[in-house]
Write a structure and sequence with these properties.
By secondary structure, the protein is an alpha/beta fold. It is about 50% helix and about 15% strand. It is built from ten helices and eight strands. The protein has an eight-stranded mixed beta sheet with strand order 7-5-6-4-1-2-3-8, with helices on both faces.
């Protein structure tokens, strides 16, 4: 399905304590917007939409100041830090009825903004979702690279459809954004939800550039939390693995019981071993704690969903 030329585009940028780079980032995106407008690739009404995820620095003040002089810069501020995925959803929900398509991109501009034109070309060719996928992970540290590759392989093993090396640099048509409104869970992991929509999609490859200033707010603990949310939100395989593990332990326990009876009744040489007893206690105890923890994660997820709390609260809007 082809689309009309010159779609109205919104570029959604979540921000959290980015005062060191946000002004340059906005300048970079405005440059890309103006370039695309001059090339008749997008509508002149296209704009930037920034979401301040409860920053404690001057990020919002800088955004407000730019907004006073440029009507292409819009946005909103959260009352608190509600998380990256909530900020993305807030931007998507606010822009879906005002634009033909939205592109989400990180505030640090590491994701090659000059590739936006390729997203637009794929959209105009009929794609409702265009995924930005990095060529490689050469700019990552060794630990981050290993953990990222492990996560994608684990997700595939557990049956979660996540595109490897795709984060949150993507284009969503207004149709795709409207379908997202049907997903009401509070911990919405967009990189796992989008493939479930079943819409026509394509991929744009890009390189990741070094960060020009400041530090990444996506710490190891945040990435670990995202991984846990992804697993507990999209698959029950870990629960089935617990069932299989329980059956396996019972099976070996029966074999051990038969062996002990054989030693006691047939051979009659029973050696009382402290080491084997302690090992068995710790081994079974560890399995029980692990299983309880996994079940607890799922129960906790159910509790959060049942409370049905809002994903975020808005403090200010710039329109």
């Amino acid at each position: 399905m082809s689309r009309r030329s010159r779609p109205k585009l919104s570029i959604i940028i979540p921000c959290y304590n980015e005062e060191e780079i946000i002004q340059d980032s906005i300048k970079t995106i405005l440059g890309e917007l103006n370039l695309l407008i001059n090339k008749d690739k997008i509508s002149k009404d296209s704009y930037i939409f920034l979401i301040d995820d409860g920053s404690s620095d001057k990020t919002w003040e800088i955004i407000k100041k730019i907004n006073e002089n440029n009507n292409k810069v819009k946005g909103l501020k959260f009352t608190n830090n509600f998380g990256h995925q909530s900020a993305l959803m807030a931007g998507i929900m606010h822009c879906k009825d005002e634009s033909d398509a939205s592109i989400t991109i990180d505030a640090d501009m590491q994701q090659e903004p000059n590739k936006i034109i390729n997203f637009i070309e794929n959209y105009c060719s009929g794609s409702d979702i265009v995924y930005g996928v990095r060529y490689d992970r050469k700019t990552d540290g060794k630990i981050k690279k290993i953990t990222a590759l492990f996560f994608y392989k684990l997700a595939r093993f557990l049956g979660i459809n996540i595109i490897p090396n795709h984060a949150d640099y993507r284009l969503l048509s207004s149709r795709a954004a409207n379908l997202l409104t049907q997903y009401q869970e509070p911990d919405l992991i967009l990189r796992a939800i989008c493939p479930r929509l079943g819409l026509k999609n394509s991929i744009v490859y890009f390189n990741v550039k070094p960060r020009s200033a400041g530090k990444s707010k996506y710490t190891f603990l945040r990435m670990l939390g995202l991984a846990v949310d992804s697993i507990t939100s999209f698959t029950v395989v870990p629960l089935r693995m617990i069932t299989a593990l329980g059956a396996l332990v019972i099976f070996f326990s029966i074999l051990m019981g038969i062996y002990i009876l054989y030693i006691a009744l047939i051979i009659g040489d029973v050696v009382k071993g402290w080491t084997s007893t302690i090992f068995a206690i710790y081994f079974i105890g560890g399995i029980q704690i692990l299983c309880i923890a996994i079940i607890g994660e799922y129960i906790g997820k159910i509790l959060i969903i049942e409370k049905n709390r809002p994903r975020y609260h808005i403090d200010e809007r710039l329109l």
